[in-house]
Amino acid sequence: MAMLMMKDNMNQLFADYEHPAFYDEMFEGRGKGRIHYGTMLQRLAKMGLEELKSRDALMQEEMVTQGITFTLYSNNPEDSSRERTIPFDLLPRMITSEDWAHLSQGIQQRVKALNLFIWDIYHEQSILSDGLIPSDMILNNPYYVPEMVGVDVPGGVYIPLSGIDIIRGKSGEYYVLEDNLRTPSGLSYVYKNRALMTSLFPELFFDYRVRSIDRGMNALLGSLRSLAPHSKPDPLVVLLTPGIYNSAYYDHCFLAQEMGIGLVQGNDLIVKDRIVYMKSRQGLRQVDVIYRRIDDEFLDPQVFRKDSLLGVPGLMDAYLAGNVALANAPGTGIADDKAVYAFVPDMIRYYLKEEPILNNVPTYILTRPHEREYVLSRLSDMVVKERSLSGGYGMLIGPTATEEEIKAFAEKIARHPERYIAQPTIKLSCCPSLTDGRVAPRHIDLRAFTFMGSDSSYVVPGGLTRVALQEGSLVVNSSQGGGTKDTWVLG
Fold first, then answer.
1. Same domain, yes or no, for 356 and 395?
2. For residue range 150-207, what is the model confidence (pLDDT) as tens digits?
3. Which of 18, 299, 339, 422 has a CA that sits 20 to 30 A from residue 233's CA?
4. Which residues form the Circularly permuted ATP-grasp type domain (predicted)?
5. Is residue 475 part of a domain?
6. pLDDT digits over 254-270, tens only?
7. 437: confidence class by pLDDT, cuts 50, 70, 90
């Protein structure tokens, strides 16, 4: 009788589930779950759809209570922004230990090469003189910061925190989609997702040996502290935020609280005699490391944008004098440019003398006439991205675009080919999601977070699975209405 009830619940739970023509993380065929999801499918069958919906409602209430939010911006001047809870899907995504070993090795290899590339660009520029990357792509890049030329950053670490976006293709193969190296966001949601899941589904954690993420915050703090000038034994670390109106302000607050560091805005800091101080009730306290969540152009109005009210006047002078560390270092955007991304496999071979463990998505550089011509003839099959934008903005997804949108992008590319890159549309893997009161397949990606210190690196087990909640959508970014899942790396 119990087995019949379980089977009925499973049939009810997945009654409307249309098995996609993509790689499905949970199923390998109609009604056939992948081995590592077997126990979970049994648990879900016992619960049934109504129990899942009930727990989902409890979870949504808890997110509101805890204020787990993200700010969406609108082009409508009467509705410039609105804060909302970030959508969280309670059906977790699981990664086998074998897959994770492959992914984490590939991610660490990639981050190591990117860090060496940034050092090279601001020092010897050997990769340019050897002709592996066009010089104008770097030296005329808006993310190139001439003030960083010749600067030896603490520990040689430019990117103590990076977010590497991973996708899975139709056959289950992994690709790197993007490298986020300036101010990568979303780490707080990794921890909040896990906390919500452990409280709502303790029985699932009893069934599986899910690899812990608890070490992550200490690893990040250790990476930041290792950058302190003069190897100061007890450095003062702060997180510099643009303030409450930033879309990722919740992320900033959570990370500062979890690491036990100060959360400051530009007017909380002052530079005297090329030393940065934090204003406090006890007076001025010298700051040794700044984990900054504002872009280069707003860091210091004396060097970058004169109208910036977010940064700290004189900050770059103190930084160049070696009296404070900035994480991530100014100028790191040169390595997460969407065109420079295409050359990362070459960087790995050039700096590490190794073959890349993880492949790129094939990428077309549109300043090359033959590649531009090829892309323009197949725009309906391409994803086109504006190099200077992120968060899902400035994109064309050919298969879902209208004729008018395709024509408009063709004209943009013809006028300014240097501003865009193009990639074939990858059939992102899907994972079952509870959406609109039913279980349905939704496209996902994975943002893996890596912390690099002066002598070690650490990849948070699992990272942040992002979900395109709209049916058929390939855009997973929170800024475009995407949600998140807890990501389980199995022991």
1. no
2. 999 998 999 999 999 999 998 899 999 999 999 999 999 999 999 999 998 888 888 8
3. 299
4. 92-468
5. yes
6. 999 999 999 999 999 99
7. confident
The total of structural domains in the chain comes to 2
Q: Is residue 452 part of a domain?
A: yes
Structural domain that includes position 409? 362-424
Per-residue pLDDT of 19-63, as tens digits, reads 778 899 999 977 789 999 999 999 998 889 999 999 999 888 888
Query: Does residue 484 contact residue 92 with C-beta atoms inside 8 Å?
Result: no
Among residues 477, 483, 463, the alpha carbon closest in space to that of 194 is found at 463
pLDDT for 7 equals 52
Tokens 């934090």 belong to which residue? 278
The Cα angle at residue 417 between residues 413 and 420, in degrees rounded to 5: 80
In angstroms, what CA-CA distances link 346 with 131, 233, 280, 325, 350? 11, 38, 48, 29, 6
CA atoms within 13 A on the CB side of 241: 20
- H or E stretch at 239: strand 237-240
**Do 73 and 81 form a contact (C-beta atoms < 8 A)?**
yes
**C-alpha 489: how far from chain center:** 18
| Amino acid making up residue 25 | E
E-strand ranges in 265-405 read: 269-272, 275-280, 283-286, 289-292, 325-327, 359-360, 364-365, 382-386, 395-397
- Residue 477 preceded by cis peptide, ω within 30: no
102-to-28, 39, 65, 258 alpha-carbon distances in Å: 21, 24, 38, 29
DSSP state letter for 332: G
Whether 22 and 86 share a structural domain: yes
The SS3 call for residue 249 is helix
pLDDT of residue 6: 44
Which CATH number fits the domain that encloses residue 402?
A: 3.30.1490.270
* Together in a domain, 439 and 380: no
Residue 306 domain-assigned? Answer: no
Under 8 Å between Cβ of 160 and 239: no
Average pLDDT, the chain: 90
Per residue in 79-119, pLDDT (tens digit) is: 445 556 778 899 999 999 999 999 999 999 999 999 999 99
CA angle at residue 177 from 421 to 196, to 5 degrees?
140
Cα–Cα distance measured from residue 121 to residue 369, given in angstroms and rounded to the nearest whole number: 26
In 253-265, which positions are buried (b, 16+ CB within 10 angstroms) versus exposed (e)? bbbbebbebbbbb
Residue 255 within a domain: no
Same domain, yes or no, for 343 and 380? no
Which residues contact residue 157 at a Cβ distance below 8 angstroms, ignoring those fewer than 6 apart? Answer: 115, 223, 226, 227, 329, 452, 453, 454
Rounded distance between C-alpha atoms, residue 487 and residue 465, angstroms: 6
- Supply the angle between the helices 215-225 and 249-259 in degrees, to the nearest 10: 90
Cα gap 483→322, rounded to integer Å: 40
